[in-house]
Write a structure and sequence with these properties.
mainly alpha, 154 residues, 6 helices
Amino acid sequence: MSEKKFTEDDSSEVIIAKAKDFWGKYGKLLTIASVVIILVGGGYYAYSNFVVKPKEAKAAEVMFKAEEYYRMDSLQKALNGDGQYGGFLKVIDNFSGTESANLACFYAGSCYLKLDNYEKAVKFLGDFSSNEKLTQARAYKLMGDAYADWGKSE
């Protein structure tokens, strides 16, 4: 029975020695990798919560009045704003990289199509992209209409 206990103690000492040896060889690398992972994760969290979310909220707030003008067919006000509220073009310029700016490209392209400015309609509709298939299909349809009305049916 004492032999069995001696073997268990011996094997645990071997395991501890291997762990110390492993930590001696790779401890610095593991510490650096852990710190990098924590910094990258923390940086991503901070950026998304303290930069992107407030920017997205402000863009949606600015775009609200432009959408209202769009529904009323006040296309110039929807595009350029009314002096107090910015239009879709301001949202695109000031809030690039947000979902609201992406949606503003769709609206701007639609406005320009209604204003018979086909080149700008194609540009803004081409800048728009969506994961929603129906919305993206609508953008492609409007782009096709713009090309056809522009005389570039090829």
